[in-house]
Amino acid sequence: MTCYRNSNVPRRLLGDCPVLPNGRELTPPSATMLREQLREKISAAFYRHGLLCATYPVPIILFTSVSILTCCYPLLRLPLPGTGPVEFTTSVRDYSVPSREPQGDLGERPDWYQGPPVAYIQQVLVKAAVVPWDNSLVPVDVFRSPLGRVFSLLDEIRNHVHTDSSGVRSLESLCLQVADLLPGLRRMQSVLPEHGCLLVSPANYWQNQRELFDTDPNLLKTVQKHEPKGLHTSATLRDLLFGVPGKLTGVSHYNRKRVVTYTISIVLSSYDASFLGSLRTRLKQLHPSTNCTGLMNERMVHVHFKEEIGVAELIPLVTTYIILFAYIYFSTRKIDMVKSKWGLALAAVVTVLSSLLMSVGLCTLFGLTPTLNGGEIFPYLVVVIGVENVLVLTQSVVSTPVDLEVKLRIAQGLSNESWSIMKNMATELCIILIGYFTLVPAIQEFCLFAVVGLVSDFFLQMFFFTTVLSIDIRRMELVDLHGHMRTEDSLPATKPSPLRTRSAPPPPRPLPHTITLQTPARNLRPPKRLRLVYFLARTRLAQRIIMVSTVIWIGILVYTDPAGVRTYLAAQVSEQSPLGDDGGGGLTPHLEVAPVFRGGDPTSTLTDRLAPDPTPLPDNQPQGPPDSKAEPPPHSPPAVPQITWGAEDEEGWRRLSFRHWPSLFSYYNITLAKRYISILPVIPVAIHLSPQEAIEGRHPQDTQHPMPPIPKVAADLQPDLTLYKVAALGLAAGVLLVLLLLCLYRLLCPRNYGQNGGRRRRGDRPCDGYGYWPPVSEISPLLLRGHSMDIECLASDGMLLASCCLAGQIRVWDAQTGDCLTVIPKHGRRRSSSMDCWVNFSSEGPDPSLSGDSLSEDEGHQVRHRTTPSRPPLFKDQPDLTPLIETNFASTPTCPNAARPTRDGFHYGDLVADAYMAHKPPSPSNFYSPSSSSPPSTAPPHSRPSFGDAFDVTPPDLGGGSVWALELRGNLIAAGRSNGKLEVRLWDTTDGRLRCCSEGVSASGITALAFLNNRIVAARLNGSLDFFSVDVNKPLALLQYRGTPCRAGVPMSPCYSSEDAISCQLTRSVQCAHQKPITVLRAAAGRVITGSHDHTVRVYRLEDSCCLFTLQGHSGGITAVYIDETMVLASGGQDGAICLWDVLTGNRVSHVYGHRGDVTSLVCTPLCIISSGLDDLICVWDRSTGIKLYSIQQEAGCGSSLGLISDSLLVTGGLGCVSFWDLNYGDLIQTVYLGPSSDGQGVRQLLVLNNAAIVCDFGSELSLVFVPSVLEKLD
Amino acid sequence: MSTLEEHYWSCSRAPQLEREHSSTSSAANWLASKGEEMMSIITSVLGSAYSSLHRHRTVNLIRRGLVLFAVGVILALVLNLLQIQRNVTLFPEEVMTTLFSSAWWIPPCCGTGAAVVGLLYPCLDSHLGEPHKFKREWASVMRCIAVFVGINHASVKLDIDNSVQLSLTLAALSLGLWWTFDRSRSGFGLGVTTAFLATVFTQLLVYNGVYQYTSPDFLYVRSWLPCIFFSGGVTVGNIGRQLAMAGVEKPHSD
């Protein structure tokens, strides 16, 4: 039953498997067998599918898009969601109140049309005009008298009594009696009826009292007084009272039609056809409108209002959506290791949303009408469907081996997760099906949607998302391929000519590793804050938002029309119409003649309400709706206002906001939600007034103060001014916006944004994964060049820096300036001719054959110049083989009397000069130590010639060992070599002298050195530990130790003058300190800590070399040890464990496992312990409790070097860069790229110097990074 | 969590009772409750900031408690509103005033309950020695909260005359929630305990006349109340566990 278990990769090769590979008989099919078979089949199917998707991405995406669109097509027929009312029209004649019981036979009748409506609305549409228009009339006359007629009409309506056989009915008995206004509407109290019949008309402005109206000096002001300020989208009070949209009322000074329109809205609680009929007849009789026959007074419209969504309802909804977004955020945050994280997150969201839309569309297609509130159930649907699958898919694909082909990766990833995906989907379907059988209609509908959504989501995941993922992975592969090519370019060049090995540093790791290491190099991300800023800067989001909001703002400005722009524009439009001349002509007499003939009694004053003489305009009546200003009737003398009735008057309420009736009723605490009202056909009333009447109705002030603004002038100048105002405002806003944008841009983007961009190619710097390249950091590292090979050891005492490369050359740098102070070649000779001390003990003869291989280096140029060629071309191609050659050095004499002063015994000045002049390969010259002048230094066989300048020629000595450990204190350098020699050198910059004394005890290589005070501890490969004491024989007090050096303080570097004789004396040698090679050695606070491969840590006292404790607890070799002056000892081992020890008692304080692999580096702050491991994880632990605070996943292969600049600033080395972290929050503060290209070597060692500079080895160069800006930022 | 939901069922009735005589003090109450909420948020934020510097267990505990308290208060307010809006659909001012004036003690009670239950869950886990490892991520927690709100929504919105059917449906939903997001025996046990205790507590409250339900069908309360309590307990436990885990290990490895 496990016949396919081993065929993991191509699972498509599936078939019947009657006999197991091992020959056993097939077990009878059991449940597990079936399950396994099913699993294999599913996995194979997914594998094939993944191959398909990755092979044809574009056709599949096209196909998916087409299917999404097809499935969403039925959605077009759905009404848009919202609270818009629904209408149903019946005939007035056979109207009867619908019964409450639903009747199934009425197919067209909507289901809400049951029971009586909330109210019946009867509107009396009044159109009034002063005819014939007289030039002597003032603009106020257009509406004053017509409005005045509303009072008499109201009286007529209120007092109308209909008497028939069933009794006497008045309006009081039929109308909707309202009680109190809502408490919050006190300001409307004076306007809206507070009790009695709900009857609204413009007369409400004046409390239905004619006297108030007559004494009102400014009608427009009264009307305007109640208008709300600012943006209003719903029904305003003016709309409520006039019953027609405000611009159609004609109550303004600029009314060109001179027809005033308003309605009297009567709200009835019960329907009485006979009463309304008699009212209609009565009104028509009073005010006969001649040509209103076009009105079909037969339709009764029932309007049903949806449930309203208030704030109270929105809050839970919004909460649900917030939860939904949090869910999506937390989900998509896990997408990682892909080319474009946001692209994939978007694809995931698109997948879910499209599947929902498809689900609704499909359900609609098959006849299921959604009754649930879409906005409410939507978040739950998303949550039920979930975006887990796409994340699982992504992670599975990403975790497949990188070196595979993209197709195979996709296929493998799919096939790996196929079982779990299918299982989850089956489970969800089962749960939903169970929900379907709850037989609750709402749940059933939800479940139906969810099932279809799940299936379509699965479809989309399989086709859409997988394809997108394959494209993404392919893009990433392309990037990797480029990196790969670069690496390979350098490699074949090195292979044919082994001589070039030195020029190109050997790749530290095998090639496949290099590729895989580069892959996630993008993941070193700036902190979220920076990323947000980058995102903003990249997408110009701020600009766009401001632009959009400007447009919206202007739109609102136009819409709310605070300055009358719209009126002006409308007037402009009407003037530009073909009849504009007439309009203008109509206005001209108005403008000019009016003052002249004012007070004069025109002849036409006698025309009264019978005036509407239809004969002059026989053909105007059907077309000219009174409100369509764009099409005034042709040839109509504008002086004669004409009242016409059109089809739009029939249902004039349609032009009102759909919130009109609900808001009117809501003032009386009556909700229309889920209920309906019936709107009865309007009763048209046309009122014609004679100019005489209009003049009679004038208020004394009407002729006085509104007159001066002559309408024409006002119409021309005032809107012009407002237009200018708006334009000026817009301009100012634009300028302000530009300034704001500039400021934003300045703020968002650093000063050197884009300046240094040209220097680096795009592909060179790791990007943040969003396609945006972080600005070039202000910190530019100082490259210290000079070493010809990779730097092996690095030591610093805070102010000075010593480095040793693979070639064995030691350089000392000034950490402040980056100047190379001195160069100590392999043999300890200096290039300088002033070198007066030369000590060389070589036990073996030089090998002339190798002398030609020696490399010369350019040392004449002190570092820090990028222009300096790193080495002369003459010797560029010559390999340095010497460090690779290790000879045994058994015959090294050990000199016990090490304390003797070194004496200058031998001068090579002439020889060297000759060689320099000849400029030829160094001649083999034997430098045997001719004297016993420096017996203390059992000189290490510095077999390599020094690579000083070309004149510095030395026979190479095969007996030399490479420097394995280096320590620096002041002008003393201690170097431990692989052949077991310890050299202590004294160098001096002033006179260029070099004194050295060397001492060797055993042949085992020195793996670690510690230089504390005047003691040197050397740990050897064979596990022995040697304690040396360094003495300087000078009578004066020259050892200026001022206390013990502390970690962050200035180390007290002893100063030795060049005349001093230095002796290095072996004080004690612990032969078997450890059973296995000592890997780490640290000394602080008078303790020496050694860690070894034998799983133990030992603590020695520095003074007497006494072993205090042997700390056992690790289950692997010790790889990292940390101790500081506060006696806190931490050790990390190959088992990934970190132990905290009490140095005083030897007890283990805590023991935590944090890494999958070796712990490579450990540092401590007073609060926490920072460890880094081979798993590229940096863990930060609480020092007191041992609890892991957080961990930082670094890019792979970024090295393990750690350094602490301050207690809260951590620096780590990466691939070609160093990163600064804020320890308090784990945020990346800054990443400094050390070289122009990031595909270089990783930073292997990292030292923190005093002046907040860090130094790290970067191939053959040292990088000095000054971090004052980081410190500032931290502060 | 034990008191997270136990009161908002009464609020649909309570606002109407108190609407008349509480209009004057509504603003003050509203301000007070908002201030309290803001203070809790601020303190939780400060607490988290502080504890990032000094992470001790107690600080961590307090921080978690505060966060849970805030979650409980917010959930109580929102779900309370969900109940109220069934009867009041218009006039948001009214709703706001009634929401914040009627029963000011409900959100703190719910918050306290949430804090207790949310702290109890990880504590119980550690005592039982079986750390909860199933779907320990914030996305799952968010999903859980959404489902919980959905269950409440369903209990409000579903118009089912048969209360037994509704109760069974909600019970199935709650069990589904537990199965989807928890699947631990301790979680189930604690959820059941929470539901039982909270229901008893509610019964006592109603019996003593603190408030009442519109249509009680299970002694004095609604019969599906234990289901809501159960799912609420599981949800808050989920949050609490996640918080406890995030407190130990900051989810910062993105």
UniProtKB/TrEMBL annotation, chain A:
<keyword id="KW-0443">Lipid metabolism</keyword>
<comment type="similarity">
    <text>Belongs to the WD repeat SCAP family.</text>
</comment>
<dbReference type="InterPro" id="IPR011047">
    <property type="entry name" value="Quinoprotein_ADH-like_sf"/>
</dbReference>
<keyword id="KW-0256">Endoplasmic reticulum</keyword>
<keyword id="KW-0812">Transmembrane</keyword>
<feature type="transmembrane region" description="Helical">
    <location>
        <begin position="380"/>
        <end position="404"/>
    </location>
</feature>
<dbReference type="Pfam" id="PF24017">
    <property type="entry name" value="Beta-prop_SCAP"/>
</dbReference>
<dbReference type="GO" id="GO:0032936">
    <property type="term" value="C:SREBP-SCAP complex"/>
</dbReference>
<dbReference type="InterPro" id="IPR019775">
    <property type="entry name" value="WD40_repeat_CS"/>
</dbReference>
<dbReference type="InterPro" id="IPR030225">
    <property type="entry name" value="SCAP"/>
</dbReference>
<keyword id="KW-0677">Repeat</keyword>
<feature type="transmembrane region" description="Helical">
    <location>
        <begin position="56"/>
        <end position="76"/>
    </location>
</feature>
<keyword id="KW-1133">Transmembrane helix</keyword>
<feature type="repeat" description="WD">
    <location>
        <begin position="1111"/>
        <end position="1151"/>
    </location>
</feature>
<dbReference type="GO" id="GO:0000139">
    <property type="term" value="C:Golgi membrane"/>
</dbReference>
<dbReference type="Pfam" id="PF12349">
    <property type="entry name" value="Sterol-sensing"/>
</dbReference>
<dbReference type="GO" id="GO:0008203">
    <property type="term" value="P:cholesterol metabolic process"/>
</dbReference>
<keyword id="KW-0333">Golgi apparatus</keyword>
<feature type="region of interest" description="Disordered">
    <location>
        <begin position="489"/>
        <end position="516"/>
    </location>
</feature>
<dbReference type="InterPro" id="IPR001680">
    <property type="entry name" value="WD40_rpt"/>
</dbReference>
<feature type="region of interest" description="Disordered">
    <location>
        <begin position="922"/>
        <end position="952"/>
    </location>
</feature>
<dbReference type="InterPro" id="IPR053958">
    <property type="entry name" value="HMGCR/SNAP/NPC1-like_SSD"/>
</dbReference>
Automatic annotation (TrEMBL), chain B:
<feature type="transmembrane region" description="Helical">
    <location>
        <begin position="65"/>
        <end position="84"/>
    </location>
</feature>
<keyword id="KW-1207">Sterol metabolism</keyword>
<keyword id="KW-0753">Steroid metabolism</keyword>
<comment type="similarity">
    <text>Belongs to the INSIG family.</text>
</comment>
<keyword id="KW-0153">Cholesterol metabolism</keyword>
<keyword id="KW-0446">Lipid-binding</keyword>
<dbReference type="GO" id="GO:0006695">
    <property type="term" value="P:cholesterol biosynthetic process"/>
</dbReference>
<dbReference type="InterPro" id="IPR025929">
    <property type="entry name" value="INSIG_fam"/>
</dbReference>
<keyword id="KW-0443">Lipid metabolism</keyword>
<dbReference type="GO" id="GO:0032869">
    <property type="term" value="P:cellular response to insulin stimulus"/>
</dbReference>
<protein>
    <recommendedName>
        <fullName>Insulin-induced gene protein</fullName>
    </recommendedName>
</protein>
<keyword id="KW-0812">Transmembrane</keyword>
<dbReference type="Pfam" id="PF07281">
    <property type="entry name" value="INSIG"/>
</dbReference>
<dbReference type="GO" id="GO:0032937">
    <property type="term" value="C:SREBP-SCAP-Insig complex"/>
</dbReference>
<keyword id="KW-0256">Endoplasmic reticulum</keyword>
<feature type="transmembrane region" description="Helical">
    <location>
        <begin position="104"/>
        <end position="124"/>
    </location>
</feature>
<dbReference type="GO" id="GO:0008289">
    <property type="term" value="F:lipid binding"/>
</dbReference>
<dbReference type="GO" id="GO:0032933">
    <property type="term" value="P:SREBP signaling pathway"/>
</dbReference>
<feature type="transmembrane region" description="Helical">
    <location>
        <begin position="219"/>
        <end position="240"/>
    </location>
</feature>
<keyword id="KW-1133">Transmembrane helix</keyword>
<feature type="transmembrane region" description="Helical">
    <location>
        <begin position="188"/>
        <end position="207"/>
    </location>
</feature>
<comment type="function">
    <text>Mediates feedback control of cholesterol synthesis.</text>
</comment>
